Amino acid sequence: xxxxxxxxxxxxxxxxxxxxxxxxxxxxxxxxxxxxxxxxxxxxxxxxxxxxxxxxxxxxxxxxxxxxxxxxxxxxxxxxxxxxxxxxxxxxxxxxxxxxxxxxxxxxxxxxxx
Amino acid sequence: xxxxxxxxxxxxxxxxxxxxxxxxxxxxxxxxxxxxxxxxxxxxxxxxxxxxxxxxxxxxxxxxxxxxxxxxxxxxxxxxxxxxxxxxxxxxxxxxxxxxxxxxxxxxxxxxxxx
Lengths: 114, 115
Hints:
The structure holds two protein chains of two kinds. By secondary structure, chain A is mainly β. Chain A has strands at residues 3-5, 10-14, 19-21, 24-26, 32-39, 46-52, 59-61, 64-69, 74-79, 88-96, 103-104, 108-113. In chain A, strands 2, 5, 6, 10, 11 and 12 form a six-stranded mixed beta sheet that branches. In chain A, strands 3-9-8-7 form a four-stranded antiparallel beta sheet, with no helix packed on it. The mean pLDDT of chain A is 94. Chain B is mainly β. Chain B is 0% helix and 50% strand.
């Protein structure tokens, strides 16, 4: 069965600090896709990144970076030099190759303190 | 860039009433997905449509039904509403189906409150 675990329920850091959000996933499929979505207080779900199971390259996009490690079934997300606008709930998610549905983790609520 | 449009954005209903939520996908997207997010919860997949046919089904109650129309917009019909149906309902769209091969882009959601 597929499952996504975000062990950190809530994190608070002071602005300009770096912060890493952990994500561990479970799947029996060899083909799967991993996602991160951001949900700010306004409620919308904002797509951040998608990785497929065959591409373990880490990715950097501005202050955001992602570390995908199949050996530990992890897909961690790091925000460098955090800003108050980064405050949101962040969801890690998984989709298996044959399914339409995305399975979300429980989310990590991130507070960036000024 | 055009995004997924959902209407209404907010809806208040009484128990046992019906509700219809509408979703207009990003232009040229042919697949729509519906998710339900309860308060403090993660989004849960309800149902999806590709080219007007149901393509996948999740934990959608029998009281709910959905369809996709020829212009690719979709409607989620909810009957005999219960207090537990109060949630944020997201529609997402993508071009093509086959799981996560195509990124699902989410709309702003419809916040349903059942009193």
